[in-house]
């Protein structure tokens, strides 16, 4: 709650003092009030208009005069702030706010609140389905942190007759979105004071300005002629004539091929930003205005044929899109666009439509290829302009040499795909960057059924005398062998995965001279920032990896580098063993069974316990600092 700053019992010093106090409170709590207004406003309107409307509602809340002092607020709240909040809510509850001459205006720019994740998108959709009182109730409970009785009282003061009903509807939204009123919610995607700025339609603005100036000149000419005719008494009506075509009408924020951004073909050779923004426009139909118009209209007006990968917003482009490709591929018209956040692939035909995928924060590898056309299990890729050489290889055949892949103008022939996680042997891309970008740089990309293939990386076993190693490209012999054996244990093989890393965190000598086992942790990171991990053990005679645990979170990432795994193993002689292993900071492993336990220091970070039969057990690792960790679930 806000800190009390006004003594309500103090006498007023002149008529202007309450207004001065109101202005000070509004400035002090401006961001809080604007966020409250933004959440309470209809979520169905576009973000630019909603941002301006939120600022307008707060700025309009400043009274021109207060004839009496605000009533005392609940608890320790500043009564002046509480009165301003009430005025903001009343404004948001109006069905049709009046036109406001003093409302903030922005010319030539579009404002957007920060892009959120899946939870924020779900909250936006839920708020859009509520009526105004319920949105106001949600704002009071979540943004202001008021209790239900306090929020009900404020709603009644704002003119809501059924305050309890509005609170019940708001509580349903909070529960469905995973946001509790008592918690500290992350509403960064609902902050109109932390906005991103993009230009509007520059060409349309120019045309509009030309049209306005032309109309102004004609109006001035007509007025002058009329006045002249009236003054001379001739009564002759003035006639205005122009030559040339009429100015084109304004187009939408992202519609029209004229708005598409095209970069020079060699931009990638001269910029330090190597991502999708450096892709030039390619394809034999990049000048086909009709095709480009259909593609941009499909993005501007999402419909039933709009498909989005998980965590991808289906809203119109946030900036003038870049044209990356327009052409006919195997008889299908394809257009590829990019607005700085998302890729949009437009295809025509029976199964055509618009496919959207997150592609922000890409780099030389994650922007290395796009699935341009998919037919069954075959894919035709469009490669980045900096890809000098391309090959394909079976992930399950590391000893087999990669096969060269032609890619004239970046377009590959139909290439076998395959799901990486089904253990049947997917075909992956092996690309090599031009020396202009990176010398001797090759990397692997795996198709997961989406627009952008996942980048495969590898972290080798730890050198216990050195700090933890960083992921590297998965093109070396050890990396290829590891991916061949463990790739199908990856925790996530669905569209929207940005990177898959395989980390070999321990190597364990097996009892009875049965060879050695490798312990790996596979991590999948999505474009949305979410991720998951899975541990697995690779045994000498196993046909595939034996998965030992996993789940969502940041395990096995650079933010959480400690892990433990365990598995049952039967030796070639038929003896049952419980195997356990930990990462480099695990110094002790403990195992608890139904009627037995083992607790040992593990200099090599591994443990093998012989048992006559398998049973439910609990395994823990003790780090060098004394912290206990358990396996992933």
Question: Can you characterise this structure?
Answer:
With 633 residues, the chain is an alpha+beta fold. The protein is built from eleven helices and 27 strands. The strands form six sheets. Strands 10, 11, 13, 14, 15, 16, 17, 18, 19 and 20 form a ten-stranded mixed beta sheet that branches. A five-stranded mixed beta sheet has the order 3-7-6-5-4, covered by helices on one side. Strand 4 (322-329) and strand 5 (332-338) form a beta hairpin. It is flat, with a radius of gyration of 32 Å. Residues 1-16, 180-184 and 217-255 have low confidence and may be disordered.
**Content of β-strand:** 25-35%
Q: Helix count, per DSSP?
A: 11
Mean pLDDT, rounded to whole units? 80
Assembly state here?
single chain
How many strand segments?
Answer: 27
Helix content: 10-25%
List key phrases describing it:
alpha+beta; flat; five-stranded mixed beta sheet
SSE blueprint:
Elements lengths: L16 H12 L1 H11 L6 H14 L18 H15 L15 E4 L5 H11 L3 H12 L4 H10 L5 H14 L19 E4 L2 H31 L56 H12 L5 E3 L13 E8 L2 E7 L3 E6 L5 E6 L10 E7 L2 E6 L3 E8 L8 E2 L10 E2 L10 E7 L8 E5 L7 E6 L12 E2 L3 H10 L10 E13 L6 E11 L4 E8 L7 E7 L11 E7 L5 E7 L3 E7 L4 E5 L4 E6 L6 E6 L4 E2 L4
Parallel strand pairs: 3-7, 15-17
Antiparallel strand pairs: 1-2, 4-5, 5-6, 6-7, 8-9, 9-12, 10-11, 10-13, 13-14, 14-15, 15-16, 17-18, 18-19, 19-20, 21-22, 22-25, 23-24, 23-26, 26-27
Helix pairs in contact: 2-3, 2-4, 2-6, 6-7, 6-8
